[in-house]
Structure formats: C-alpha cells, structure tokens
From TrEMBL:
Its cofactor is Mg(2+). The keyword Kinase applies. It comes from the Bacteria. It catalyses: L-histidyl-[protein] + phosphoenolpyruvate = N(pros)-phospho-L-histidyl-[protein] + pyruvate. Keywords: Cytoplasm, Kinase, Magnesium, Metal-binding, Phosphotransferase system, Sugar transport, Transferase, Transport. InterPro entries: GAF (IPR003018), GAF-like_dom_sf (IPR029016), PEP-util_enz_mobile_dom (IPR008279), PEP-utilizing_PTS_enzyme (IPR050499), PEP_util_C (IPR000121), PEP_util_CS (IPR023151), Phosphohistidine_dom_sf (IPR036637), PTS_EI-like (IPR006318). The lineage of its organism: Bacteria, Pseudomonadati, Pseudomonadota, Gammaproteobacteria, Alteromonadales. This is phosphoenolpyruvate--protein phosphotransferase. Its EC number is 2.7.3.9.
Amino acid sequence: MLTTLRRIVLEFSQDPKLQSALLRMVSQVKKAMNTDCCSVYLADYEKQNFILMASDGLAEDSLGHTTIGFSEGLVGLVGQREEPLNIADAKFHPHFKHIPEVQEDELNAFLGTPIIHRRKVLGILIIQQKEARNFTENEEAFLVTLAAQLAMVLVNAEARGILGQNQDNGKWLKQLTGVPGAPGVAMGNIVVSQPKADLDSVSLQKVYASAEQLKRYNQAVARTRADFADMSVKLGNIISDASLDIFEVYKQLLDTANLGKDVTSKINSGWSAESALKLVIDIYIVKFESIEDSYLRERASDIRDLGNRVLFNLQQQTRVDESLPDEFILAAQDVTASMLAEYQHLGLKGIISLSGSNNSHAAILSRALGLPAIMGVESVPLAQLHQQLAIVDGYSGDLFIAPDETLKREYQHLIAEEDALTVKVQQVVDLPAITQDGKAIELLLNAGLSTGFEHSLHSGAVGIGLYRTEIPFMNRSCFPSEQEQTLWYRHVLSAFPKQTVTMRTLDVGGDKSLPYFPIVEENPFLGWRGIRITLDHPEIFLLQVRAMIKANHGQNNLEIMLPMISSVSEVDDAIRLINQAYYELSSELPEHEGKLPRPRIGIMLEVPGVIFQLKELSRRVDFFSVGSNDLTQYLLAVDRNNSRVASLYDAYHPAVLRALKTIADESGKHMVPLSLCGELASDPAGAILLLAMGYDKLSMNPHNVARIKWVIRHIDFQRAKVILAHALSLETAKQVHGYLNEQLEQVGLGGFVRAGM
C-alpha cells in the first residue's frame, strides 16, 4: 500500500496540469481502494465554498460546476471539523445534502478527509461505495495519509500557477508565501533577472597555456574588483552600515591569498581560466552549502555570485542596457547583493528571491536600503513571473500575483502612507528621542565592520549598541592576528568619537561556525557557541580583547559585551581574562602615552536561565543588553528560519513580554543600565512597550532610527505605561497585536501599524 501511495503522489506532482492530475489521482485511488467512487473538492475561500474538481464515479458534467458551501452537507462538515468522517449510510446523516446533478443516489458509504496545509483546509478527498458499510481503519488511514501528502503537492501546484490555469476567472492563484526578508510594501511589474554569465554552463577544458590564461584571469579579476568598488561607492552614498561589507569580502576573496591562489594553481596545472574558476568556485560552494549554520550557508550564494561576476569579465561580455519600467520589482532565482547594487538606482521598489533566507546578503542589503523583500518563494517557474503585476508584502512574506482591484487599492493606500511617513520622520532625525512628557531614551545602531561608518552619524543614532565582531572572522581562511583586529576596531571606534561603541566578543559556534574552525553538533543552537567557545579557547578570547583595548586607547568609547551567557561562573572567568589582558597591556604601554582606559563590561541576556540570576550578575557587570531575537527563540522553542514553525515565532507572545518586563524590573532594582538589540526595538509598538518597561537604550538598523524616534517623540511616557500594563494582562500574541494596533491609532500613530499585522 505504501508503494501505491508514493506512486499516486509522485505522478500527481509531475503532471503540469491540475485537472488531469486530479482526474488521474481519483481514478488511481478508486482502483487502489476498490471503491465505487473517489472525488476531490477544492476550497475557494473567496466564495466560501468547495468546488467539485475531479471524480471517478460522479457525473462528469458536474465537474468544475458543482459547489457546496463551507457549512453545507457532509463535505462542509468534514471541512468544519477538520477530521475524517466515516459514515455507513450517508443519506441518513442529518448533514447530508442531496445534489441531483452529481448523480450519487446509488452511493451509500461515505469516507471524507480534509486536505490541510498549515492549518488551512485546501480541499476534501472522498471515497464512496454502493454497499452501506463503515470503511475499515486501514482504508481510513490510507486516505488520511494520502491527503496529508497531497496537501504539500497542492500548495506547490498552486505556486507553479497550475490552479490559475484551470479557472476561467483566474482567481485561484492569488497569494504565494515566502520568508519576510525586509519590511515594507511594494507594488509594480516584475522584472526577472537571469545571470549574465553562468558557471554552470562552463565546459571543463585543458589548454596548457598557463601564462596566457593567468593574464586573462588577472585582467578579469581587476575588472571585477573595479566593478565591486563602483557598486560599493554607489550604495555608500545611500547606506553605510555592515550590509556593505559584502563588497569588501568579495574583493578580499579575489586576493591571491584566498580564492585567487586556488584558481592560479588550477591554471598552472593546465586548465583554462574559465575551467579553473568553475572548479574552485564549485568546491567553495559545496563547502558552504554543507554547513549547518543558516548564515554561513547563505555565503554559498555570495561565492556563486562572485564566480559569475569574474566569468562575465573573463568572457568579455558587453553589458546590454535593459529596458526597464520606471518602477519595478526585481525577481531572480537567487537575488544577490551585486544585483541590488546594479538595479537600486533604476526604479527598484522591492525584491523577490526564489531561494535564500533573511540571512542572505540580499536581505541584509534590502533592509538597509528600505526595500521590501521576500525570500525563499519556492516552486515558482521564474519565467512566468516576468512582467506580472505583483504586490510584495515584506512584513508578512506574502506575494500577490495579478491582484484584483480591491487588493490593489488596499495596498496602494498602505504604500502611500508609508512613503509619506518616511518623509515625515526625517523631520526629527537630529532631535533627541524624548517623550512629550520628558522621558528620554537612547537610540543606537546594530552594526558590523564597515568602511562607511561616517555616514551612519547622520542616521540620528547616538552610538553603536551592537557591533558584531564575528563578521570579519567568517570571511577569512584563518583567525585574524591581534594587529589586524586592532586596526579594524580602531576604525570603528574612531568613526564614533565621543559616542559609545559596544563590541560583542566573538559569537560563533555550532550554528555559526568558521570555515577554518569547523564544529559539528546534532543540536547546534543548544551547543558549543558564544562565550562557551571563547572561554574554552582563551588564546582566541585574549587576543580579541587585547585588540579591543588597544584600539580604545586614545578613544575611550569602548564597551565590551559577552554573548550567550548562561551562568555566573562564565562571567567570572571572562572578566578574569579581560582583566589579565588589561593589566598586560597597561604594563606594556610607555608612560608618556598616558593611562589605558578600562572598558565597561556587559553581558547579553538571551538565554532564559539568566533571568533568574540577574541579582548575582548585576554585581559583576556594568550593563545588561537583551538579545530579543534569540531570547524569543529560546523561550518559545522556535527556529524562526524554519518555515514550518516560523509563524510561532512572535516577540509579542505574552511569555516574551513578561520576561522582558521581569528583566527591566530586576535591572532597575539593581541599578544596572539596560539596552535591547533585536527586531522588537525596530517596531513602533515594541519600542513603546520597551520604553514603558524601563529600557534605557534600543539598538536597531540605521533605516529605523528616525521612525522610532518619531514614535517616541509623539507619545506620553505615562500613556505608554498604561498601554504596557494592559498588554501584559493579555493571554495571546494575537490579542496583544490587536490591542497595540488600536492604541497606535488612538494616539495618532496609526500610520506605523505595519502591513499584514
């Protein structure tokens, strides 16, 4: 029976036309289960009914025409109850509805089961028999199993446009769903971008002309480096945070000490430049794609993009100017950072990437540019998207293809509101973040290493609340030296004179490993990571801390933050090492250079267990900083990058809000300054709650600083406390969202209610 089931599902998934797929499937099920009839109804939520799409046993003329309301008949009852219904003689059931045109008068036994995907009933699968009897447990189990497997196949069929091809009104295919990559809403025609050069199309060839091939390769590399420098300059005039690092990474990889060394070796062994490049890039891609960490896995996309760029210049192709509409949405199998650099000044309004996640550099860049983005929209034929009108909802991850007039008007209104809001909030960018009744809070930046920090000073932030030091570690073939790290950190600290820069010590581990320091674990999120690794390897920790302290000499604006703290002993051990590094450097410093400033030390609160040790921790550190993204993941046991459970990840879950309030209360009691870095700080409603809880600082992407500052400046602190008190009394995240949206409307901040909430 298992073999039969697999064959039915496989053949269904391979048929390009829905109607023929459904007809074949019902005939196969009828034969496999030896019944007199098998039928399938699909749900139409717009009309609130089920439509009979295929049957082997009912009247052919009724297919595609007969409908049953969601609350009508046995079909509707199966949908309402969301469970199988096994009836010996259907005609005597109180919910039975006689429909003459289907010609089922001779059929008595009825077994129906819902086809459900992510809590949504997609349709009903039914078998019927003339003999009045209850179907057996095995028959019921088979039908339920088949329906469960059909659910995913139906969703993929919908994504491929199969459903749309079979409806005259074209209303089956309306909404696809991906992973929210960057917030915002955009509407426009889709422009599909295909790679201008593709390493997959390169045929391996040996030419044994190493000198000539090396010359070609080096010339292509030089042109590619110039391309990336140009892209970086163009984007640097618009944004300036860590998202630009990718172009520096590309240029570093092209150095002879990295990727270039391997390509040169292949060329010297007789391969053509194109073949050598393909061989090396393929090896890099395989290595990255085999890494469990989602961030590092996304680097395979960057390597592929880099290889295609070099190939483009190797082949000396001429760039052809595309005919683009004034405004458009970019779609590609894998939207890359360099694609965004090419298109962002040509009317780009949003992006759709069939692969990738919110960790991809395209998503990171999109957030920095303020472009709505949806990642991981799977099972869609890319060519079918070209020139289609689409709505991209980067808040919810919803993608609407060929929307109707009602939906277009709704989103046009939202887009107009967002555009007006973006202009309006710039009025307060240089003003302090202070409520109407005088309560102040500091807004800071989340950042990594970037050559454009100077421009971030114009974002309205008053410093860096989270500087991720692991990024430059990831883009190397070995650990960086103390001198290299000192130069990096001094560049950052000097870019923010007289403003605090909080540097987080190396935060890698089983879920975010380094290529040259591999870690394989069955459960990396609960494994060897963050402070656990650096304490086990004091030589790495001491080197980094020494570099930070040296870089801070003459600046005196450094704070050191320890990640993934789960116990008091970890803090004691880390502080001992920091003190060791400080005293070593103090003794090495010449007297005429003055006293070495000692940085303040803080910890990240992201492991739920530390909530119950805040009293003890407060005696040891100078500040606390909540990592709300990880804290939410750990509190709710949800991997937000897992599409099957991502909907359960919600920072407004009552448990998360109450945990954040407890942290704020304990920090206030022990007089420890408290900040928060995470997506909650970037959301207007979240910022209001955190303000009311007593958080001193909020750290976020530069793009969001002005928006949050506007919200803070247009609310009373006392009103915020009232809102918080009621929000904490609610029982579900849905209730919290609804209440907060109402409150934002009441205080005149309704324009900040994000789309799709």
